[in-house]
């Protein structure tokens, strides 16, 4: 997820595994570091979502921290949407 304003660019990367209770912050940064996080996501074919409000909240978390329960719903909805996009893309290539 990222914030587009060039001067204040921010990015947060989340990871989730079924064995974990909640997604966790695996990378975050401002400016050039944010650009590198987004570039790596694109390179790996990972969807980058532009959500300034969510990014602002996630930037407050420590690296490797699980997202707090108050963000479960919004992050879950985003992940479902991303998974649906992935499934649609795979179906088109079949």
Automatic annotation (TrEMBL):
GO terms for cellular component: plasma membrane. SUPFAM superfamilies: EscU C-terminal domain-like. Gene3D superfamilies: secretion proteins EscU. The keyword Protein transport applies. It holds the Pfam family Bac_export_2. It comes from the Bacteria. InterPro entries: T3SS_substrate_exporter, T3SS_substrate_exporter_C. Keywords: Bacterial flagellum protein export, Cell projection, Cilium, Flagellum, Protein transport, Transport. One of its GO terms (biological process) is protein secretion. Required for formation of the rod structure in the basal body of the flagellar apparatus. Together with FliI and FliH, may constitute the export apparatus of flagellin. Belongs to the type III secretion exporter family. This is Flagellar biosynthetic protein FlhB.
């Amino acid at each position: 997820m990222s914030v587009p304003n060039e001067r204040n660019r921010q990015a947060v990367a989340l990871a989730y595994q079924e064995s974990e209770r909640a997604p966790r912050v695996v990378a975050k940064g401002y400016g050039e570091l944010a650009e590198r996080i987004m570039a790596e996501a694109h390179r790996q074919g990972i969807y980058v979502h532009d959500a300034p409000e969510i990014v602002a909240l996630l930037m407050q978390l420590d690296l490797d921290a699980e997202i707090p329960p108050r963000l479960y719903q919004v992050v879950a909805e985003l992940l479902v949407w991303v998974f649906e996009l992935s499934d649609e893309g795979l179906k088109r290539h079949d």
